[in-house]
Amino acid sequence: MSGKADGAVAGAGDLVIALPAILEAIPPAQARLGAFLRARGAGARIVGRAELLLEELVTNVIRHGGLAAPEAARLALAATIGPDQACRLVFEDPGRPFDPAAAALPDLPTRLEEARIGGLGLVLLQRMARDLDYVRLPDGRNQLTLLLDEPAGR
Questions:
Q1: Residue (of 116, 129, 104) closest to 52 by Cα position
Q2: What is the largest CA-CA distance in the chain?
Q3: Is residue 92 pLDDT above 70, yes or no?
Q4: CA nearest 50: which of 63, 62, 37?
Q5: Cβ atoms of residues 95 and 64 within 8 Å
Q6: Chain Cα centroid distance, residue 109
Q7: Is pLDDT larger for residue 89 or for residue 83?
Q8: How many helices, marked H, and strands, marked E, lie in the chain?
Q9: pLDDT (tens digit, 9 = 90+) per residue, 44-76?
Q10: Separation CA 140–CA 26 (nearest Å)
Q11: Taking each helix axis from N to C terminus, what angle separates 44-64 and 26-39, rounded to the nearest 10 degrees?
């Protein structure tokens, strides 16, 4: 997405959202993303995944990104729907380097009583996206590209 004045490059018909790294920015960004995807014919499963993963990405940058001033940090999301109705999301953040595509997944509990709240963001990313691609950009930002489609994901 890097390249434009607001830090995002998108083609005609793409959605680009710039948002601060604050939890309050998540619901309006999800609403814009969901409306964009539905208007282009994406199914409920794609829309739901995209909104959930947006929340997960923003939350993780805030909590784990090592941002000195999260409220001043700018995040960016670009979304595209292809002719096959696959959704491509490109998320950029200024946090510390982290490749969720290469990260080891946590051990999942075998019984509900052993489960704890949280800690499953990597599982969501790796299992809901068909493809994940991480790049550390020359300007020091993280760029994560996710491909979502109707099949079961990865």
A1: 129
A2: 49
A3: yes
A4: 37
A5: yes
A6: 25
A7: 89
A8: 3, 5
A9: 999 999 999 999 999 989 988 999 888 889 999
A10: 23
A11: 150
- Residue 9 pLDDT: 46
Which token pair is 36? 């964009």
Residue range 108-131, pLDDT digits in tens? 556 555 555 555 566 677 777 888
CA–CA dist 133, 83 (Å, integer): 21
Half-sphere exposure of 107 (CA within 13 A, CB side): 4
Question: Alpha-carbon torsion 112, 48, 86, 101, what sign?
Answer: negative
Here the tokens at position 154 are: 């990865």
In angstroms, rounded to a whole number, what is the distance separating the alpha carbons of residues 43 and 86? 10
User: Tokens for 123?
Assistant: 């599982």
Task: Please state, in angstroms and rounded to a whole number, the distance separating the CA atoms of residues 134 and 137.
Answer: 9
Distance, in Å, from the CA atom of 93 to the CA atom of 58, rounded to the nearest integer, reads 9
Cβ distance 89 to 56 under 8 Å?
A: no
- Measured distance CA(88)–CA(82) in Å, rounded: 8
Rg (CA), the chain: 15
N residues, the chain: 154
Calpha distance 10→2 (Å, rounded): 9
